[in-house]
Structure formats: C-alpha cells, structure tokens
Design a protein that fits this description.
- The complex is a heterodimer of chains A (296) and B (467).
- By secondary structure, chain A is of the alpha/beta class.
- Chain A has a domain of 204 residues: Rossmann fold (3-Layer(aba) Sandwich).
- Chain A has 10 helices and 11 strands.
- The radius of gyration of chain A is 19 Å and the shape is globular.
- Chain B folds into 3 domains: 39 residues, no CATH class; 231 residues, no CATH class; 156 residues, no CATH class.
- Chain B is globular, with a radius of gyration of 28 Å.
- The two termini of chain B are 54 Å apart.
- Classes of the chains: A alpha/beta (296), B mainly alpha (467).
- At the A-B interface, strand 6, helix 3 and helix 4 of A face helix 11, helix 14, helix 15 and helix 16 of B.
C-alpha cells in the first residue's frame, strides 16, 4: 500500500510584494497568524541527486513562512541532507523551482564545489546553514571565521563587532575568539557554526540535526537564539530524527521517505495522512507512514 | 559456515582488524583467506606498513605519471647519475676542501627528520587497544621497523657519500660501515627522544623543545662522530656502536612500557603520511596538517594589516593571513623568493630582466592557484560570493604578494647593476622597484581581467550543460 501523499503544490505563488512586512512579527504566536501567502522560501524539488540524471530525491515541496519552524523529517537515508545540500547549491543534479520572496530561483542548477559562488544557493543574506558536522577552515581563528562570513556577505566591520560580541557571549566563546576552532571540542565547533550563521541574520535558517554535539545548555541557547530570529521574521527549516523534539518545536513538517515527500503539513495533517486518531504522537504517525511505505 | 577462528596469540578482547568479518568466510585461496585467523601483531604491522607505502606510491603516481617519468624523472636520473659517475672518475679539487664534518652532518640531517612509527590506526581504539599484549607487540614491531628504516637510510646515504668523500673525510670501507651503523642506531635514539618530547609537550613548547633537541643532538652527533673518525680506532668504533645499541634497547624497552600513547601515535602516523606525500597532495584533506598550536603563531593578533577596510581588502587580508600560517606554502614562497634572488644576481643584466618577467608570471600563476584552492575550501564555499568581490579580493591578495616578492627581485637586479657598473647605475636600486611597482600592477590587472573572463565563460558553460 502506497503512502498517502499530502504534498502541497507550488502553483499560485504570488509576487514578493504580497509578502507582509515581517518586522511586525513579535513572537511565535504572532507568527502563527501569518497568512498562507506570507512565505519566505518555496522550493518545489522535481529531481535532485549526486550524479547528473540520477535522482535520489523527487517531488518534494517545502515552504517556509516568516517565524516558522518547519521540520524536515525522515529516516536515515531518506534524503533530508540531500534537500539541504540542494538548497545550498551543492548538488550536481538539481531540478527545482526555488523562490525567495517571489524571486525566481534556478530552475535547474549545477553545483560546483570550487565555484560555489556561481551555484547561487550558498550562505548569504537570505540563507544560513548550520551543518550537522562543523565545516571550518583550519588556518582561521574563530574571529577570522566570522570576519570572512561578514566580509563575503557584505556586513560592515562595525556591525560585525556589535553583533558578534553578543553572539560570542551568548554561546560562551568570547574567551577563545582568537583560537583555532579546529582545535575546539565538537560542541564548541558546532557553536562556532551557530555564531557564523546567526551573524548573517538571514531570512531562512537551514539547520541540520541541531541537537547533535551540543550540550543541553547550548541546545537551550540555540533554541532561544532561533526564537529571537523567528521573532525578527526569519524562518527555520530543520532536519532531525529526534521526533519528540521535532513535534514540540516545529509548526509544520515535511516527512521525506525514500527520496520523496510522504506527507507534509501540521501535526494534524500528518495524522490524517497516516490515518491516525487525534492525539497520536508524531513518532507513531512517522512509524506508520514509513512502515506503510516499506510494505510490499 | 565455519566461523572465523581467533588468532592463537590474540586475546579474546582484541580482534586485530575489521576484516574478515566474523561469521563470513572469505573466498578460498584468496589473500584474505590465507590471512584469515592468522593475524599476529607483527603481521598486522607488516600489512599496514605495506599499505602505507602503497598509498604513498599511489599518491606520488598522481604527479609522476608515465609522461613525467619518461620526460623528466628518467632524464634527470640519467643526468644526475652521469654527474655522480663523473665525480667518481674525475674528482674535482674542491672535494678535498670539503670539511670532514660534512658527511656526518648530512647523516645527522637525515636522522633528525625521522620519527618513531607504530602504524596505529583510529579503528584500533575500538578493541585492539584494550589488549596490552597486542599493543606492546605492535609497538615492538613498529620500533623494529623504525630501526630497520633508520639503518637502511643511513647505509644508503653513507654508500653514496663514501666513494665521494673517502679521501677528504678519511673514510675506509670499515669506518664508513661503522659510521652508517652508528648513524642508524643514533637515528633510532633520536626517534625515541622525539617521541618522548612530542608526548610531553604541545604547541609552542613542543616546537621550541624539538628545535633545541635537534640542535643539541646534531651538535653532539657531528662532533663525536668526527672525533671517533679522527681516532680511526676499531675499539672506539666498537664501544660507540655497543653503547648506541644498548641505548636503543633501553629506550625501546622503556617505550614498550609507556601507556596512554594512542592519540599521539595517531597524530604521528598522520604527520608521517603528510610528510611523505604532502608536496604532491598539498591540495587534499588527507595530507593536510592541522595547526600545531591552539592559537596562530604567525599574525597572532587580530589587528588589521591593511588600513582600508572595504570587503575585498578584508577578504584579501584574511587570505594572506591563512597563506602565511600554512608553513608548507609559506616555506615554498620563501624558497622561491630566495632562489629567485640568487638566480637574478648570478645572471647578466639583460637575462635578469627577462628572467624577472618570467618569474613574476610564474609567481602570479602560482598565487592564482593558491587563491583558487583557498576559495574552494569547504568553509569558503559555504558562502555566496559576489563576482565583483571575489575578483577584486583575489586581485588585491595576489598583487600584495606579487609586489612583495617582485620588488625584492627588482632591488636585487638594481643592486647588481650598481655593483657592476657603479656611479649612476646605483639609481637602478630605486628606479627599478618604482617601474616594477607599476608594471606588476598592470600585469596583475590584465591577469585579473583574463581570469574573470575565464570564470564567466566557465559559468556560462556550466549553465549551458545544466539546461
């Protein structure tokens, strides 16, 4: 039995002018009142993969609205990280409609590690990526990592100093800002990536497995920082397979299974897709949907 | 299906390697089948040693493909071999003037590059390191390899030096062999000292300690070897070799009893591989050396180097910082600069002018390669670079280094001109750098335009391929 598909289409996307001013969003409750048209990013991924013409991901639609946390869920190998890499312009095969507040993105992209700049999806003013495994440069101090991020993304040195100082204090990294992050512990390296991402104040955060490698205090700090960013109007797309946390944290979900979207929407939508009654935890819905998909 | 039998020497808690998987029999007659159940610490070290050298050779083959071997390596070996044979047949007069300490100093230089090998692998931490007996035996095998390698290197070097320097250094076959043997044993002693020092200190202290130890060891070795050779007494040689052999046994025995060395051994193995292939795999993650200290040693303070602070300048400054902190690159840059200075000083002025242009062109190409490599680093590739910022920061970074070295070369040519002709020719010391400053700016500007056009063409081609 095939799983019920509940993927929203991307047809009918209105112009960026229709998007409301996100500055008025004060907190998460306000965010929930944001209308269906107030999206920040819409991606309709038709096919994506690591080799030209060989799709490992098909027909996945993702929409992130201001102040919203969208959970990209799925079992190991489902294609969650592939979605992230595609949005970052790191996939060699990527056929997708990606719209940023109405700007038409690439229809079909060809990523290139060396010319990441040309691939048009990497970290910039509208998108910041917090990877599962920290990505660092071994000859930069922590401060220089932030300097590079700021310089490439057009942030002035004054703004960098002002914003980075607060972030370094928040993540308790101020005392090591002139040290090499490659010499840090895994958790501190992850915090370095968090500071670099928060520094950019993007429209959308792509957060890959945010709870791996961080201590409980750091997780709380991350969530608080993300909440502040959401209040600013930023959206969050996070991948995880810690479903209990996802259910508590996310407003909507996209469940990816075997390279395509098995279900999407709110918890209620997911329950409906799984055919489960009211009050069923996301974990059970997830189990039902993925088990159903695996049944011959 | 017959389960994998455990090696007789191995304790139950120490399956030596991941292959073969317990419960799965390998194909009959295969190498794995023959090794199946026959692992021993010595065999494992031998296999890892073979794998290490195979990996290194494969890495070198990336650069030395058959065309390079045929057109460069073989002719170079032919020429060098011919020159060596010529030196043997017709020894030039200067050979007799070579100081007697030279061969021992060469042997000492080879010694202090060595490190103690154990062929530890990260996976050992899962099970193997829990067995003290396996660890000791593998360490013993590593120590044996280290000693054998030191002896092989010393005998090879002495074998090449002996025919040349037999006369000036007063070597006979016996004294040469004794010197090689003692050099091999001393090399092992050095590896044990280095190993202990690296385990004891980290960061700047480690570097300082190793420099001091190297200097002390080389001085002690060169002076004592020269003294022993000057005595030309077999008893002195036998006593020296016996003492060194006893020191090797003592240090080796002591090392076998040391625990908590796994992390250090992994680092040593990574550095050994990096030293073996670092030059050919300079661009790859595998051969990259992590920074030695917690903080940078070069440009330690975050104080800006450049006064203007627009985005391209800020990025160019960060590139320069990272470049100068990468010792391999900085060293090559310095070598290139100094060898260039020597070549320009030794050339006639007209040739020096042509060579300057060619060398600046080469330097520019190399710097551009370094810039491209840096831009391709995973952290840099995380960000979306604006084309104008990318091109401008690359141009500024290249020009800063190009001018630093190119103008130093101009000063050398100008000084050479003044030195040769005197008088007004000394004005060249000031005029040539001024002209060079402008010329290098123009060359870099032209190169930047060409590179930007190439990148734009590549982007268009990529976009065409994709659609």
């Amino acid at each position: 039995m095939k799983p019920m598909k509940h993927v929203k289409g991307v047809k009918g996307v209105k112009d960026v002018k229709d998007v409301k001013d996100v500055k008025s969003v004060k907190n998460v409750k306000d965010v929930k009142d944001v209308g269906e048209e107030d999206w920040l990013m819409r991606a309709a991924i038709k096919a994506a993969g690591y080799e030209q013409g060989k799709a490992v991901l098909r027909d996945v639609a993702i929409e992130v609205r201001p102040g919203e946390r969208v959970g990209l869920l799925g079992p190991n190998g489902a294609g969650k990280s592939t979605v992230m890499k595609g949005l970052l312009g790191q996939l060699p095969y990527w056929v997708a409609d990606v719209e940023w507040r109405g700007e038409q993105g690439r229809r079909k992209g060809q990523g290139s590690r060396r010319d990441g700049a040309e691939s048009g999806g990497a970290m910039n003013g509208r998108l910041a990526y917090i990877p599962e495994m920290p990505i660092l440069y071994d000859r930069f101090t922590l401060w220089e990592h932030l300097q590079l991020a700021a310089a490439v993304c057009g942030i002035s040195e004054e703004r960098l100093a002002e914003r980075a100082d607060g972030l370094l204090a928040r993540f308790r990294l101020r005392h090591v800002k002139d040290d090499y992050p490659v010499k840090f512990s895994k958790g501190m390296q992850q915090k370095t990536m968090l500071v670099a991402a928060f520094l950019l104040e993007p429209s959308v955060y792509l957060v890959d497995e945010p709870f791996i490698g961080l201590d409980p205090a750091a997780i709380m700090e991350l969530l608080e920082a993300l909440d502040e960013e959401r209040a600013r109007g930023a959206g969050v797309l996070l991948t995880t397979h810690v479903l209990d946390s996802a259910e508590r944290l996310c407003d909507r979900f996209v469940l990816v299974h075997e390279g395509s979207a098995a279900a999407s929407g709110t918890v209620a939508d997911i329950r409906a897709a799984a055919g489960m009654p009211e009050g069923t935890p996301l974990f059970d819905c997830f189990h039902r949907l993925t088990r159903t998909a695996e049944t011959p | 299906m017959k389960p994998a039998s455990k090696p007789a020497a191995a304790p139950p808690a120490a399956p030596p390697a991941a292959k073969p998987v317990a419960g799965a029999s390998p194909p009959a007659g295969s190498l794995i089948a023959r090794l199946h159940g026959k692992y021993s610490p010595m065999r494992l070290v031998l296999l890892r040693c073979g794998a290490f050298w195979l990996k290194s050779v494969r890495a070198w083959r990336l650069t030395l493909d058959w065309t390079v071997v045929l057109y460069l390596v073989l002719p170079a070996l032919w020429v060098i071999g011919g020159m060596y044979a010529d030196l043997l047949r017709h020894p030039p007069a200067w050979i007799d003037r070579v100081p007697a300490q030279t061969p021992t100093a060469i042997l000492a230089l080879l010694m202090v590059r060595a490190r103690l090998r154990t062929f530890a692998e990260r996976g050992d931490g899962l099970f193997l390191r829990s067995s003290g007996r396996w660890v000791r035996r593998m360490t013993a095998a590593g120590l044996t390899y280290t000693l054998a390698a030191r002896l092989a290197v010393s005998f090879a070097a002495a074998g090449l030096l002996l025919p040349l320097l037999a006369h000036s250094a007063g070597w006979s076959l016996g004294s040469g062999a004794a010197l090689a043997l003692s050099a091999g044993l001393s090399g092992f002693v050095w590896t044990a000292i280095r190993d202990a020092a690296e385990r004891r200190w980290q960061g700047l202290r480690r570097v300082a300690a190793l420099l001091a130890l190297r200097a002390a060891f080389m001085t002690a070795w060169v002076s004592s070897a020269a003294w022993a050779l000057s005595r030309n007494d077999p008893v002195v040689a036998v006593v020296a070799i016996a003492t060194l052999a006893a020191a090797c046994i003592g240090l080796g025995w002591r090392r076998l009893g040391v625990s908590g060395t796994f992390a250090h051994e992994l680092e040593a193995e990574q550095r050994a591989y990096g030293e073996n292939v670092g030059w050919v795999l300079i661009d790859t993650e595998q051969a990259k050396m992590p920074p030695a200290g917690r903080r940078p040693w070069v440009l330690r303070r975050p104080k800006p180097l450049l006064r203007r602070r627009d985005e391209p300048l800020r990025i160019a400054e960060l590139w320069l910082r990272s470049l100068l902190r990468e010792w391999e690159t900085a060293r090559t840059l310095l070598y290139f600069a100094f060898l260039g200075m020597i070549a320009l000083w030794l050339s006639p002025l007209w040739l020096a002018a042509i060579a300057w242009t060619g060398m600046c062109g080469l330097l520019l190409l190399w710097l551009n390669g370094l810039w491209g490599r840096w831009r391709g680093e995973r952290y840099m590739a995380l960000f979306e670079w604006r084309d104008d910022v990318r091109d401008a920061s690359g141009a500024i970074g290249r020009l800063l280094l190009l001018r630093a070295i190119g103008l130093a070369w101009c000063v050398v040519i100008g000084t050479h001109a003044g030195w040769m002709y005197g008088g007004l020719w000394w004005l060249a010391v000031a005029l040539l750098p001024a002209a060079g400053y402008l010329l290098l700016g123009w060359i870099n500007g032209a190169a930047t335009s060409v590179l930007a056009l190439r990148l734009a063409g590549k982007s268009r081609s990529d976009a065409g391929d994709a659609t």
